[in-house]
Amino acid sequence: GKQTELTLAANHLGHYLLVKELWDPTSPASPRIVSVSSSIHKIASLPSMLDDPAYRSTTTTSQQFSTFGAYARSKLANIWMVLSLRKRGADAVALHPGNITSEVTRGLTFWLRVADYIGRPISPLIRKSCAAGARCQVYLATTKVPPRALYYVHSAPAPHSSDAGNEDLAEQYWALSEAWCGVGRD
């Protein structure tokens, strides 16, 4: 049947569908759309995203399935969503919230969870609290001046991967997201 990898569904398609259903491009009161991405988007495997965009197979062109790879792909997809929304006239921006102390590691491989557990004592030195991690989102959502950059880190414009800024790839993924979510083309 129609199966989509869980990380992509949760981190991208759910957000895409929410935005698609709520955003009215004709409304003068259209709000800013803030999408949480991650700096990990920079390691997303572009060939596999195009060869197997829903990450359905256990083995893609150049790599075996990994939760970490799926996470990176979903975060690149979020930046592409923002790029496509901007093309459609939306006030939209993507961000990396930083290394946050959270339960995000629960889905990682055993050894990455072990490394996370071992690193917990020094975690406050290298990770942000959830509240600190939310600062960039709150700033971008509430600043009066529309953010000009596509991608932000620590509430400041930041470089993203060259693939993340590729409008053609963003549009291809937008069309795929529409098809996966069963919503009409715009």
Automatic annotation (TrEMBL):
InterPro entries: NAD(P)-bd_dom_sf (IPR036291). The keyword Cell cycle does not apply. Coiled coil: none annotated. GO terms for molecular function: oxidoreductase activity. Keywords: Oxidoreductase. It comes from the Eukaryota. Belongs to the short-chain dehydrogenases/reductases (SDR) family. This is Protochlorophyllide reductase. It comes from Octactis speculum.
